[in-house]
Design a protein that fits this description.
The chain has 555 residues and is of the alpha/beta class. 37% of the residues lie in helices and 24% in strands. It is built from 22 helices and 19 strands. 37% of the residues are buried.
């Protein structure tokens, strides 16, 4: 327990059992304990600031724009104050009192010291008061914060049940600015998904960054329908329909480039849950060399791609980077000498030199129908977005047996399970044996932050778990946590893989309907390596940690 919360318990402001329960709930909600206690009204912000001031021996101030000397804003660059979310509130005897709202900002005081010859004295103030001062100073505090300041105290009223009123309110400038700001901030944060989740007393805005969901904004409950209505308008959905799930699409120009968002709405208790998948075209431009395939596995995958026919499957759960891998493979093949067709749901990124078709379930254009049409287009390579059923699998196998290279995704936990999955669909074993060339299974693990990573040997229990007898010669790393990575120690992700090449030794096993364990056992005798083995190699190279390998690939 940190000293600040120990102080609150000691003073009787907070009960120990309440704090212990709150810690567990805050961890599940992926939010910090201080914000959680305030949001749930277990303590007042005033109580928290008072405790911080007492424990850290800092001054405590109440500030208002009208009570400050206007000349204070000239002491530091306004851009620096905005970035650090601090403001000078007084100057005396060569010392500047600078208001902060979070003790972690004490590190930012060093940046202020470098900007002036004056001594800096931090004092604690409420974050909303600091924000008002920054606005009064003329700072651009960002679209989201600015829009929330404009929307303070707004009531939805007739917008909840009247579609016309809801549309009018959702098109007003502050709401437009708020939603655009949420989208722009998500892109700047490298988020893969945006989650807007209604609660009884608030609306949580969460970003999934490097695979981890984190709460970035808590909006007032009055904004619940305004935000969802605005997103529906942008994605061409029916704002009056709140009883059924809807799917849509947004294309927005942000930061000088076009970003696509795939939108999904779902009615839940308290309103509508809205999730947006961020489809940044730059993510679809990763070359094969940058995926993180180590030398031997990369060579095996490339040999499979060079074959004139057969099926190559890429497997893994949603969000494991399968599309990025397949697009990298297609980009390698698209040299202008081959006809390449794709059938996708949806087309996530445009590929130069590739003809891409999007399935349309409403008119009966599914993967199987699209695949049959593609075979009449004289293709050399066909990508099937996903093999979901027996019909699609049969057409894909037929395409591979008639001289086409077929790439597809399949949802299985590992590479050997892809074989049994096809058999479970009802595909004849001899067809699977004859057509399947290779299966690449993958996960994404967080990459150690390059700004704060340092050499560190993992705990003994992890080394024993993965059979690492001696860490000598290995470059194990760990991130300390810094501003660049949001104190997480990780920034970006890298793939871990297992490649099952269907050799002549495996084909008889497939015909005999061997299970995935038997297939894996024989494959391991010929050099097949599991996801966790590749993960350990990446940890030894200092790319990730063994904790991440456990989280994504198990022990």
């Amino acid at each position: 327990m940190d000293p600040v919360h120990a102080y609150l318990i000691d003073k009787g402001v907070l009960k120990r059992e309440t704090f212990d329960r709150a810690v567990q709930e805050a961890e599940r909600a992926a939010t910090d304990i201080g914000s959680f206690l305030i949001d749930k009204e277990l303590i007042r912000r005033e109580d928290l600031l008072t405790a911080m001031a007492a424990v850290l021996k800092l001054g405590r101030v109440d500030i208002h724009p009208e009570s400050l000397d206007p000349n204070l804003k000239t002491i530091f660059p306004l851009k620096l104050l905005t970035k650090q979310n601090v403001v000078p509130v007084a100057i005396h005897d060569g010392v500047v009192d600078v208001a902060i709202s979070d003790p972690m900002q004490l590190m930012a005081i060093d940046d202020l010291r470098l900007a002036t010859d004056l001594e800096i004295q931090p004092v604690l103030a409420k974050p909303e008061e600091i924000e008002k001062i920054l606005i009064a100073f003329g700072a651009d505090i960002g679209a989201v914060r600015s829009a929330l300041a404009e929307l303070q105290g707004v009531t939805v009223g007739e917008g909840e049940d009247d579609p016309q009123a809801a549309e009018r309110l959702a098109n007003e400038a502050p709401v437009v600015k708020l939603v655009n700001g949420i989208l722009e901030q998500a892109v700047e944060s490298r988020a893969s998904d945006i989650h807007i989740e209604p609660e009884e007393e608030a609306v949580n805005v969460k970003y999934r960054v490097d695979g981890i969901l984190q709460t970035v904004h808590k909006l007032d409950k009055n904004l619940r329908s305004l935000v969802s209505s605005r997103i529906k308008i942008m994605s061409g959905l029916d704002i009056a329909e709140k009883r059924l799930p809807q799917d849509g699409h947004i294309r927005q120009k942000l930061g000088g480039r076009v970003i696509d968002f795939r939108v999904s709405t779902m009615p839940v208790i308290g309103g509508e849950s809205v999730v947006l998948r961020v489809l940044d075209r730059r993510a679809g431009e990763v070359p094969l060399e940058k995926l993180g395939l180590l030398t031997d596995m990369k060579a095996g995958f490339e040999r499979a791609l060079e074959a004139p026919n057969g099926i190559i499957l890429v497997t893994g759960p949603t969000g494991s980077g399968k599309t990025t891998t397949l697009y990298a493979a297609l980009r390698r093949l698209a040299d202008g000498t081959m006809k390449i067709l794709t059938i996708e749901d949806p087309v996530e990124f445009p590929l130069k030199g590739v003809a891409q078709m999007e399935v349309k379930h409403k008119i009966g254009l599914n993967f199987a129908m699209g695949l049959r049409a593609a075979m009449r287009q004289d293709p050399d390579v066909i990508l099937v977005g996903e093999i979901r059923d027996k019909e699609t699998a049969e057409v894909a196998i037929q395409a591979s047996l008639t001289g086409h290279l077929v790439l597809a995704t399949l949802h299985t936990n590992d590479a050997p399970s892809a074989v049994t999955r096809l058999l479970d669909m009802g595909i004849e074993p001899f067809l699977v044996s004859a057509s399947l060339s290779a299966v690449l299974a993958q996960r994404l693990v967080r990459r150690i932050c390059p700004s704060c990573g340092e050499r560190k040997t993992p705990p003994d229990h992890l080394l024993k778990t993965f059979g690492v007898e001696s860490p000598n010669g290995a470059a194990f790393m760990e991130g300390r946590g810094c501003r660049e990575c949001g104190q997480s120690g990780y920034r970006g992700r890298v793939g871990i893989y297992e490649l099952l090449v269907v050799s002549d030794d495996l084909r008889p096993l497939i015909i005999q309907r061997a299970d995935h364990r038997q297939i894996a056992a024989i494959a391991e005798g010929h050099g097949f390596r599991r996801l966790k083995d590749d993960g350990v190699d990446k940890a030894k190279l200092g790319l990730t940690t063994l904790d991440e390998v456990v989280r994504m690939a198990g022990e």
